[in-house]
Design goal:
Two copies of one chain form a homodimer. The first copy, chain A, has helices spanning 9-27, 35-42, 46-54, 68-79, 94-102, 138-145, 156-168, 182-185, 196-211; strands spanning 32-33, 60-61, 65-67, 85-90, 110-117, 126-127, 130-134, 149-152, 173-176, 190-193. Helices cover 46% and strands 19% of the residues of chain A. Chain A folds into two domains: 9-79, Arc Repressor Mutant, subunit A (Orthogonal Bundle), CATH 1.10.10; 85-198, NAD(P)-binding Rossmann-like Domain (Rossmann fold, 3-Layer(aba) Sandwich), CATH 3.40.50.720. Chain A is an alpha/beta fold and 212 residues long. In chain A, α1 packs antiparallel against α4 (68-79) and α2 packs across α3 (46-54). Chain A has a seven-stranded mixed β-sheet with strand order 6-7-5-4-8-9-10. Chain A binds a DNA duplex (30 and 30 nucleotides) through residues 8, 10-11, 34-36, 45-48, 50-51, 53-54, 58, 60-66.
Chain lengths: 212, 212
DNA sequence: ATCAGTTTGTCAATATTTTAACATAATAAA
DNA sequence: TTTATTATGTTAAAATATTGACAAACTGAT
């Protein structure tokens, strides 16, 4: 099914959005859609949608379009949402807690299996049935539970060292909320930086542009 | 100083990252840097950095490089961080509270001036010295305080209608944490979608790729 | 069964983004 | 002062990404 050559990251970054829109259409009771109609709803070109999907196979039918349910499933498979990976959360401050409580990771390919924080006062507390462990237990926990990925909600200053430790414990990817670019330090490891500051500054720029 | 033709969003999206790295260098006591050295630290090409900066003016000197402090200031000005805009937060659930408490908006060009939530039990509570208002007070508040921007931390289902109301009340930009693409609905309004789900799915894809 | 109308997958053309190359100008050392 | 070195701003080339065009294939109505 997969075409062998590697797919550009521009395409990959659009897949979750397709997945989301197709989910919406499904919940509206729709069962089929053409690239043209989908493109209008998403604010893209039909050509781009067809081009993107073609990186992975042929999911549509001429004269008919795409089966919405089928296509969403396929994109889910491509993204790997079906076989959840184990995730641990490092840092149970406001952001960490918000993510753990508010965010359904299971439907996005991950299961949260452990929470850690340096702060002794937090240890023992429970978030969504998971106890917050002391950082001292990290080593042991990772060897027992083999998590695949870590969510970093820790101060900037701690980011590099904690990430270094985690890489040595076998962590393969980071969802990084720290104001620090991990990708530069760890080539070969997957990093998704969520730089909230950056997006806010971009918004600031854009608001100024329409004003002036 | 500004060159008149509009600058591509690829360039704009890199500016906050430059700003951040330059801040780091400053705090390390460095005062000058060449595009070559900066590129190595950031994992870019020197050419790209020079090209990017050139969209806005000439900030360096041949044979010397860039003055770090000066360049950071200039990028801050370009982004508009100097003249803070007024922001309101809609939705004081976990994510909303985490942002309000955890996040320094002032240094990113915004001042948080009001918080709103539909839930009656939250109203009256205080977050960082700001009271949480009922949504009924939104109209009055906006007319009095003229906020420029709204942070949306509300359920998906409410997103469109709330945004619609806010646009009518003069809001010019959204920092949108809802799983919903506002940009499609409101052309002309600035929207920064923070789709945490999307970045998590992208990470899932990438972790699978290195596994297989 | 036939035929007009759709819509895909793909190839080719266009546009955008990134990288490389280099003339020019400043630095810093002799 | 002179000269070798450094490093910018800018132009040109290469690489990517997006869009347009169309033959082939299916739908659905007659």
């Amino acid at each position: 099914m997969n075409k062998s050559r590697s797919v550009s990251s521009s395409v990959i970054k659009r897949l979750p959005r397709y997945h989301r829109f197709l989910g919406d259409l499904r919940s509206k009771g729709m069962y089929r859609i053409s690239s043209k109609e989908l493109s209008e709803r998403m604010g893209l070109t039909a050509s781009q949608i067809r081009q993107d999907l073609n990186c992975f196979g042929e999911f549509g039918q001429q004269g008919y379009g795409y089966n919405i349910e089928l296509l969403q499933e396929e994109i889910g498979k491509i993204l790997g949402l079906n076989s959840p990976k184990r995730a641990i959360l490092i840092g149970a401050g406001h952001m960490g807690k918000a993510l753990a409580m508010h965010f359904d990771m299971t439907s996005k390919g991950f299961d949260l299996i452990g929470i850690f924080d340096v702060k002794p006062s937090l240890c023992g507390q429970t978030v969504r049935d998971l106890p917050i462990h002391s950082m001292e237990r990290l080593d042991e926990f990772c060897r027992e539970n083999k998590p695949d990925m870590a969510i970093l909600c820790i101060p900037r200053s701690a980011a590099h060292d904690v990430a270094d430790t985690l890489v040595k414990l076998g962590i393969k990817g980071f969802w990084n909320f720290t104001h620090y670019d991990l990708s530069v330090d760890f080539p070969g490891i997957c990093v998704e930086n969520v730089h909230l500051s950056d997006s806010l500054m971009t918004l600031c720029y854009n608001i100024n542009r329409i004003d002036n």
